[in-house]
Amino acid sequence: MSGPDTPLVITKSDPSRVDIEWADGVKTSLSAQLLRSVCQCANCVDEVTGRRVHDPASVPADLTTTVVELVGHYALSIHFSDGHDTGIFTFEHLRRAGEAAAG
């Protein structure tokens, strides 16, 4: 069974964007800058306190994605042009990030 956090189509439309069409018809377009800013890996968020240690304001506007790969049936692994490649972005997290960006 697919829920609203299930992507039907994931497209790396250009090096600076990842587009997702969700099972409920919602379309999300996420910039590389936004994705890098919301990374939840241990290098970006303290595993003990949950406090963000990576400053999202430090992400350059011209950041790109170099690799976008599926991780099982639940997430994406994204490598960025700044060398960061340790984040796993669950579909649920991507959906929330898209909703927050849309306002």
Describe this structure in words.
By secondary structure, the chain is an alpha+beta fold. The protein has one domain: NE0471 N-terminal domain-like (2-Layer Sandwich), CATH 3.30.2020. A 3-stranded antiparallel sheet has the order 1-2-3. A 3-stranded antiparallel sheet has the order 4-5-6. A hairpin with a 3-residue loop joins strand 4 and strand 5. The radius of gyration is 13 Å and the shape is globular. The N and C termini lie far apart (28 Å). The model has no long low-confidence stretch (mean pLDDT 93).
Element string (H = helix, E = strand): EEEHEEEH
- Helix content, binned percent: 10-25%
Helical segment tally? 2
User: Which ranges are low-confidence, i.e. pLDDT below 50, for 5 or more consecutive residues?
Assistant: none
How would you concisely characterize the structure shown here?
This protein has 103 residues and is α+β, with helices and mostly antiparallel strands.
Question: Which descriptors apply to this entry?
Answer:
6 strands; 17% helix; 2 helices; globular; alpha+beta; NE0471 N-terminal domain-like; 3-stranded antiparallel β-sheet; 103 residues
